[in-house]
Amino acid sequence: MIALIIMPLQRAGAADIVRDIQFPVNGPSSFRDDFGEPRGTDRTHEGIDIVADKMTPLVSAVDGTVTYAPTSEPSWGYEIAIQDSDGYSYRYLHVNNDNPGTDDGNGGPEHAYAAGIRRGTKVTRGQLVGWVGDSGNAENTVSHLHFEIRKSRTLINPYPSLVAAAAESKFSASIRVGSAPLVMHATENVSTADLDYYFGEDLSLGSVGEAVYQLQFRLASFGYFTVTPTGYFGPITQSAVMKYQAAGGLPATGVVGPATRDALNHGLTPPPAPAPKPITQILSVGTSGEPVRLLQLRLKTLGFFTVEATGYFGPITKDAVIKFQIANKITPTGVVERITQGYLNGCLSWTGFSTLTGESCADLLLPGCTSNSGFSTINGQSCGTTLLPGCSSNTGYSVTTGQACWNI
Both 149 and 47 in a single domain? Predict the structure, then answer.
């Protein structure tokens, strides 16, 4: 498994970005421009703290989709994230976690979020989404909303947008702009929330934007995406999607459609690959069934079988078996006998253990053999594979068929 790739957040340029938003706190409040202020020795403030009484209503700043609303409280507290049609994300942190009138921390999600607010919910500008609180690492501070605006990996100072929105709020007379106490607590650590992004649109080759970045980030956490997330859906992302789909039993189309989005939205990690089944039957031309299909799939994985697995052992399968046998210095009979089975099952020699099953490879040796060359001291049989007709040893060529007599 690779190390999870986490790109550092960037801040918007010097030019202020003003988003047309509804003021998110629906009641008396105060805030100042504390974006970027030092918070300890190793971080800066990534949003604006809007101080307000506990249980003051919170409303959606925009028309959009709820992309995050955890039902169990993270370390930074209950949070609501809403994404608009332009790809901007608005994050509400430290949403209430108390039963009304208390500071018990036991209010649960029903007192954090308004009814119906969950991942995937469509919300409209000004709609009630929750209530101000002090959840998570804000328990020892005044109740407040930590409000962020992001665009992909870029942090945007919400202050100019909030100033404009406050002037239009019905509570404008009781919103103290430029005045609020310093709120100090541990880091919000919201990068973890990126792993719970809600995928609400289909994605495919050529798609760009925050949803693609989050897809790449999620696939990186599973070990399928091994380069830096870019927000562009190219061939590398398509390949990673196909690997995720195949591991999860989904059609490996490389397109993030409804079924794949549903798996991602429910936090489904690909199930572990089933334990490989060893090939234990003697297989040759004319045999059929699941053992032959497993053989064809194994040979395909190893690069010797290039067509679809059918479960029927015909000339194409025989040719693939012969190529495998030659590559591993096994008598090229085209028959999957015990020695060939052992090599297909992950034995690289008669010593050690199978890389596929973990079982001992010692049974590749016949009774009376101390290596995989020469002949058994018990029955005189070749210690490699069964001698071909017309062969008197495991060297040279058959006097009847002209085929190579050599084996391992």
Answer: yes
Q: Is 125 exposed, middle or buried (0-12, 13-18, 19+ CB in 10 A)?
A: middle
DSSP one-letter code for 110: G
Considering only CA atoms, which of 53, 33, 60 is closest in space to residue 45?
33
34-72 per-position pLDDT tens digit: 998 887 777 788 899 999 999 999 999 999 989 888 888
| Claim to verify: residue 357 and residue 303 sit in the same structural domain | yes
The CATH number of whichever domain residue 168 belongs to comes to 2.70.70.10
Counting the structural domains of the chain, the total is 3
CATH number for the domain spanning 230: value is 1.10.101.10
Instruction: Provide the pLDDT for residue 220.
Output: 83
Domain-embedded: residue 401: no
CA dist., res. 265 & res. 199, Å (int): 6
The CB density around residue 68, as the number of other CB atoms within 10 Å, is 22
Q: Are residues 213 and 169 in the same domain?
A: no
Residue 380 makes CB contacts below 8 A (sequence gap 6+) with none
Q: pLDDT by residue (tens digit) across 148-190?
A: 998 866 889 999 999 999 999 999 999 999 988 888 765 554 4
* pLDDT reported for residue 193: 42
Per-residue pLDDT of 97-140, as tens digits, reads 999 999 999 999 999 999 999 888 899 999 999 999 999 989 88
Range of the domain at 62: 10-190
**Structure confidence by residue, pLDDT tens digits, 80-97:** 999 898 888 899 999 999
Q: Which distant-in-sequence residues (6+ apart) come within 8 Å of 218 by Cβ?
A: 195, 197, 264
More confident residue, 382 or 282: 282
Mark whether 242 and 130 lie in a shared domain: no
Check whether residue 82 and residue 127 sit in a common domain. Answer: yes
Residues 21 and 134 in one domain: yes
Burial category of 99 from C-beta neighbours within 10 Å (exposed 0-12, middle 13-18, buried 19 and up): middle
Q: What is the pLDDT of residue 1?
A: 35
Could you give the residue ranges of the DSSP H alpha helices within 229-273? 235-247, 258-265
Spatial distance between the Cα atoms of 66 and 117, rounded to a whole number of angstroms: 7
In contact, 71 and 31? CB cutoff 8 Å: no
Q: Which residue's structure tokens are 């690997």?
A: 243
What integer pLDDT is reported at residue 31 of this predicted model?
97
